[in-house]
Structure formats: C-alpha cells, structure tokens
Amino acid sequence: MFEKIIQNKDEWLRLTPSTALYDRTLVWLYLSLLVFGFVMVTSASIPVGLRLRNDAFHYALRDGVYIISSIAVVFFCVQIPIKKWEKYNGVLFGVALLLLFLVLAVGSNINGAKRWISLGILNFQPAELAKLSIICYFASFYVRKFDEIRTGFASAWRPMTILALFGGFLLLQPDLGSTFVLFVLTFAMLFIVGAKLLQFIILGFLGLGLIAFFIVTSNYRLARVKTFLDPWADAYGDGFQLTNSQMAFGQGEWFGRGLGNSVQKLGYLPEANTDFVMAVIGEELGFMGILAVIILFVLLSIRAFKISSESLRSEERFKGFLSFGIGIWIFLQSFVNLGVTTGLLPTKGLTFPFISYGGSSLMIMSVAIAILLRIDFENRLEKVKYANPKDY
C-alpha cells in the first residue's frame, strides 16, 4: 500500500489530476481570491458606506454583483477558442484605443482624474482593457515578427510606438501607474521573445528617463515622490494616506487585530476598500494574512508561467506569449499595489487584482483568467489527441 502511495505521490499531491481537461488549481486560486476579496472589501467598506451612502453594506453588495458578473464572464470567455483572440486582436486593440479617447471626452472626473466612463452601476476604467489588449496585440505581433524581433537591432521601435500611443492617452487622464504597467509588460514580452540585450539597455534607460521627466514636470507627481521619501514630514497633509497605511500594518503585527477590528478604516485611511485594501488586511489579519495573499498570487503567477512554458514547448507561440504576459500583468500589479501601501513605492492609482473593490478591474482580470483556462484546456486536449490519435 505504501509503495503505491509513493509511486503515485505526484497524483496525490496534484490538485488537478493529469487526466483532467482543465486546470482545477487555477480555478480554486481564482475563487479563493474572489471570496477573500469579498470578505475584506465588506469589512473595509462599512465605514465609508455609512458615511457616504447611509448603508453599511452598499459597497459590499455592489462587490457581490461584480463577483457574480465576473464568474459569468469567465464561463462565457472560456468558451472562446484562442484562435479567435489571435484573429481579432486588432479589433480589441481598436476598441481599447477608442475607449481611451472617449474617457477623455466624456469620462467622469473623480479626484481630479478622468479615468472612468459611467455605465450606471459600473464606472468602467478603459485602462484595464488597454492592458489586456496590449498583451493580446503584442502576443500576435511577436508571432508574426518573431525572427525580425530576435535578430533585428532596432526591431523594438514598433512595439514602443504602440506603447507611446497608449501611454499618451493614459498620461492625459492622468494615469502614470497604468503607463508604467504597460511599459513593463512591453519590456517583459520582448524579453520572452528573445530580443537583443542592447535593446533592453536602451529601452530601460529611455523608460527611466521618461518616468523621471513626467515626475519632475508635474507638481502633484513630484509631491508624491517627496511624500514617498519622507511621509512623516507632512503626516497631516500629503503624507496622510501613506502614514495611516503604515500605521495599519504596524498595528496588525503578526496576527492582526481581528476581522472587522481595523481602526484606520474608520475615516483615517482614504481609499480603504480600493487602492489601500491591503493596509486593512494587514491591520485586521496581520503579517500572516498578507503572507497568505502573497502565496496565493505567487501560485497564480506560477500557474500562468507554467501554461506559457507548456505552450512554447508545443510551438504554440501566441498562447505562450499571451499567457506569459497575463502572468506578468497579475504579478506586477499586485506587487506595485502592495509596494505602494507599505511605502516601498511612490503612490499610484492601481488596485490589487481580485481583492480591491472595483468592477472594471475585476471583470477584465477575470477575462484574463478565462484566457489562461482556455489555453491550458487546449494544451491538454492536444496531449490527449496525441496520446490517442485513433479516437480523433
């Protein structure tokens, strides 16, 4: 008996059996994050719901609707063959670009930024769709120009032109955080394709130079950097949000104050249920709660990279590049958000994927999960066909 257990240890330890045609591990990670996010958004949003809407569960109910809608989106999008995403990547690209234009023309101005288009119950943020469209477009572009990108010296000029176009619209909102994410995504996808090292060095210096330029030429961005360097110098002014976030983490210690017992969410910490929800998690669940979230996201990113690796080994380059880009996107946005709330990075308006309150971010990220599930499904189906060719 013990010999059988040892021989089949991989199957015992595997959440997704090798005979399954979909990645159960990815599904469970996604659902775990949704449930955890709903609990924490409910806890973090009660004070702001009472203050702004006279309803303690106003934001929790809306978040519940977003979650149910996102799961429905996954069920729909997982039915779409990856060939369709490759074929119509230009349409997605055009729609994202049009929405970025429309948000500047008719978008809602919230806290001095035009980043949302009001759709009734949902304020849609086109920047989220732009990230997915860029990944999809570049995955297709790098397949078509694979040899040129790998051998040409100045082959990255076209991807950077596309990045400049999207970045220009985002900076007009203004949204430097999303622009930074798009830049890193472009950089990372060039890396997986195998572009020449000198291009990375040039692009790296160019990117850092542009970021420095946009910071220096903008008073509010410069103030954010100064606040980041020393938030306690103006703890009741520009540093108010960051200092309260750091106090939340400090008060949480190892195991937290307990679910629902955060003090900072009681009007002290702005955006407690959106951009700074991780600070509430740190205060209520402590270091161990934060560690649990990090583990879930690391596992999710690893699954995405594993799917990418399997696709590339099968010479399915579009699938490989697309899943790699999605993995980088999820990991990068969660890393940046956590870095901001802990004071390791300057403040940027980026939500924490699947955890923060926000319908557009949750739905677009759910589409990304559906794409990963579909790629993995098609990879597994190809393996079955190869193993049993007579059955097909």
UniProtKB/TrEMBL annotation:
Q: What class of enzyme is it?
A: transferase
Enzyme Commission no: 2.4.99.28
Provide a GO biological process annotation. cell wall organization
Membrane topology listed for this record? Multi-pass membrane protein
Keyword Cell inner membrane assigned to the entry: answer is yes
**One function term, GO molecular function aspect:** lipid-linked peptidoglycan transporter activity
Q: Which PROSITE patterns match?
A: FTSW_RODA_SPOVE
Pathway terms, separated by semicolons: Cell wall biogenesis; peptidoglycan biosynthesis
Under catalytic activity, the entry for this protein gives: [GlcNAc-(1->4)-Mur2Ac(oyl-L-Ala-gamma-D-Glu-L-Lys-D-Ala-D-Ala)](n)-di-trans,octa-cis-undecaprenyl diphosphate + beta-D-GlcNAc-(1->4)-Mur2Ac(oyl-L-Ala-gamma-D-Glu-L-Lys-D-Ala-D-Ala)-di-trans,octa-cis-undecaprenyl diphosphate = [GlcNAc-(1->4)-Mur2Ac(oyl-L-Ala-gamma-D-Glu-L-Lys-D-Ala-D-Ala)](n+1)-di-trans,octa-cis-undecaprenyl diphosphate + di-trans,octa-cis-undecaprenyl diphosphate + H(+)
What cellular component terms from Gene Ontology apply here? cell division site; plasma membrane
Q: Where in the cell is it found?
A: Cell inner membrane; Cell membrane
For this UniProt record, the keywords arranged alphabetically read as follows: Cell cycle, Cell division, Cell inner membrane, Cell membrane, Cell shape, Cell wall biogenesis/degradation, Glycosyltransferase, Membrane, Peptidoglycan synthesis, Transferase, Transmembrane, Transmembrane helix
Q: Where are the transmembrane segments?
A: 27-52, 64-82, 88-107, 119-142, 162-193, 200-220, 276-300, 321-340, 352-373
Instruction: Spell out the Pfam families in the cross-references.
Output: FTSW_RODA_SPOVE (PF01098)
Q: What is the documented function of this protein?
A: Peptidoglycan polymerase that is essential for cell division.
Entry's family note: Belongs to the SEDS family. FtsW subfamily.
For this entry, the protein name equals Probable peptidoglycan glycosyltransferase FtsW
Classification of source organism: Bacteria, Pseudomonadati, Pseudomonadota, Gammaproteobacteria, Pasteurellales
